[in-house]
Design brief:
Alpha-Beta Plaits; alpha/beta; 2 domains; Aminopeptidase; binds zinc ion
Length: 395
Amino acid sequence: MTKRNSIAGMKEQVAGWRRELHKNPGVKHQEKFANAFIKDCLDDLGVSYKDGYGGFGIVATIEGNKNSHNRSIGLRADMDALPITEESGQPWASANKGVMHACGHDGHTATLLGVAKYLSETRNFDGKVHLIFQPAEEGGHGAERMIEDGLFKDFPCDAVYGLHNWPFMKAGTAGICPGPIMASVDEFNIIITGKGGHAAMPHMCVDSIVIAAQLITTLQTVISRKLDPVKAGVVSFTDIHAGEGAHNVIPESIKIMGTIRTFDQEVRDMIQTELKKIVPEFCALHGAKAEITIIRHIDPTINDAAEAEFCADIMESVLGQGHVDRKVNPCMGGEDFGTMILDRPGAYIWVGQGTDNPKSPHNYGLHSQYYDFNDEILPITIEYCAELVETKLKI
Ligand SMILES: [Zn+2]
Ligand SMILES: [Zn+2]
């Protein structure tokens, strides 16, 4: 039987797993159900694993028919859900109110279980493959914690690969690019403290609101004047708060929040340095004090050029020529798989899941309450992973 046929034959079973995972979601650090479900599945398949990496993370290992060069690679799937109340209307909608698989990590986990089934039954490769089930992708530093817990020490990987379903592309297509594909995500908080007082007597006060208004405009020049114009970066202000609802009071202080996005570690450092320098100096110039804290959150996801080319070739062998965009435009969203491929060579690919029906749950954007993973792409994601392993670890 061909690989494609045998994977097609397991589609309903894997879709069943996916729906079970979908129905029982857990947000970051609470992926207890997925953890137990994955272990049950691996036990049934007779695949060995180690538990407890980065919390509920699991790493399963499958050895090929041969292991003559001591080669090994990692395939990673994320497993956490989001704090969203589901409105997809699907029969397998979340049974856990206020928690939902709105990013399709249920589909990624099911894919890797399907890959475990196929590879453990065939073992048509030379080396080892480590299946990395990662918790806490959605802002929970899951990748970093797995690495801290010894992921790549206990399971050395020559390269590591990840994928994400992409509702913005049609099912049957995929997108990848060399270099950055997703952005770094950092968060900042600023508190400006002036001198409060009567709004009719501003000369007796240090008005933190006026200072904040000018500061926000000034900080945009970090992007427009300090950043090399051929590179990309975003500084966005997302929350601003001062005062207690009075028309006649100049408040003492103001709090501002925001996010920084880039594709490049150097740009990331430059923006942070500039913000840390400009904010206190600018406020001091106007007689106010300022504190800024920046939380480094998610690393950029930077595809190794050769690995991206390799993954594009593999995906093209699955989808056919012309169905893989090899120079897809990167996205300013964050993905903590970036931390894994800063550590190891590797690549990350988007697998289209959209349909022709605009009202289909598969066409809603990631993190929408109407979204659902498209089970029709499971044979694609599984075949891609299987083909990747059999080619990279060719006998
Ligand atoms: Zn997400
Ligand atoms: Zn996601």
